[in-house]
Structure formats: C-alpha cells, structure tokens
Please model this.
Amino acid sequence: MAQAAAGERRSVLAPILSRPYLLLGVVLLVVLAFPIFRRDQDWVTVFIPAAERMANGDDIFQEKFVYPPVNAWMALPFVDLPFLPSRTLWYVINMAALLILLVGAWKLSGGGRLDGIQGVESPEARGESQRIGFWSRWRSTLDSQLSTSMAPWREHAIFWLGLLCGISSCFDAITNHQTDLIVAALCILGCLAMAGQRDLRAGLWFGLAAGIKCTPLLWAGYLAWRKRWVPAFAVVAMAVAINLVPDLTHPPPKSREAGVESQEPDRALDSPSLGSRLSTL
Model:
C-alpha cells in the first residue's frame, strides 16, 4: 500500500517537475502580483486620473500626465472599477505583455522548446526510487528531465543570460505601473510579423506601440531605409490615428470650447485639441 501511495505521488509530481520553466513562471506570476496590488504608482496616480478628466471633458495634460492621449483613453475602463477588479485587470494585462515579450523574444532569437519531456521509468528504477527519500527522488527526477530536455545546455545558458540582462527593466515597469511592457510586447509582435514577411502587419504593430510611447517611431526610419515604404508609412499613420480616437469618442464639450475661444483665446492651446494631442507624440 505504501508503494502504491508513493507511485501515485510520483505520478502527480512528474508532470510538474518535467516543466521547470512553467513552475518558475507560476512563481514569478505570484511574486509580481505584490507590487501591483500593494503599491499606487503611475497607472493609479497619473493615467487613471487623466482618463477621468477625459471622461469629464477636462484638460488631460496636467498633474504629471505628459503622454500621448491614447494612454488616458486606454485607462477609461478603469475609472469606475472598484479596487480589486481594477488591479486584477491591470495585473492580467501586464502579465500577458510579459509573456508575449519573453516568448516572442526567445522565438526571434531562434530558440527552441526549453522544458523537458517525461521519460519512461524502468521497473528497476521504479523500485529503487521507492527505497529512497522524497527529496532524493525529486532531485533524480529533475536531473532525468534535464538530461532528456529537447534543448541542449547551450540553449538554457543563452536564455538565462538574456533574461538576466533584461528582466530588471521588466520589473521596473511593473513596480512603477508604467505602460512600457505593453509597448515592448507590441514591438515584439511587430518583429515577429516582420520575420514572417508580413511587413504591413509589422508596421501596424509598431504604430500601435509608437502611439503609446514615441520611441518605436524609429521603426519607421528603419523600414524607410530598407525601402519598405508601405509599412514605414503604416507606423506613422497608426501612431497618429490611435491618438485621434479620443477626439472621436470623448470630444470636449462644445460649450467649453466656445468659452475658451471667446473668453480666453490665449488659453486655447490648453484644451485637449488635435494639435496638443499630436504634440505629445
């Protein structure tokens, strides 16, 4: 009976131990929840208040909000959400962006699958594993999985070196509640599309990223230099277009615009007009 219980426990642990990267990913997801749920940073103190001002027809460019207006527009669904649903949604968005960033970057580097596959245990090995302790069985199983991994040790070393170089920037974006991970994920999607010879789709992804933060506009210059004129134009067009959406969905009240023009014409540029929106790109 003890042997049956040990075999059942081993059968439950084997799928988990055969995928150490999945296990580490779950641990990382749990750890990264703390800075999002326990700290109030830029998304809560800057972006959501700007979205509330946009919903009310007020000037969004105040109280440290100096970003393209689409950033305030993206935060509109969070304005009326209670604390827990709001943080949970922001957490899911960030974790999805982090997953796209890591998996996409690994694919672009030419890396293959890292997790091992479950090996077949011989009857002799099964009998031996029942006579040793739990931690010895765990270590033996893990060594077996790594030895039968679909990727050589060089692949694991490349992955971890790359991760160590860039993971601190990801943590910084998460702890500061910034949109950098979203921008990076969109750029990775653009790179994947470009690697697949889907240039127009790549230009649209880069344009979405550039509309949120202007740095990805550099892709327009690169694509133009490579004489890929259509995707280069798509980068700029998409970046501008998504920052016109807030004017269509949440235009300033006509009475407020009229008041600004008639009573204080020198403050017309302070309103969230098309010119002021494009100047933030």
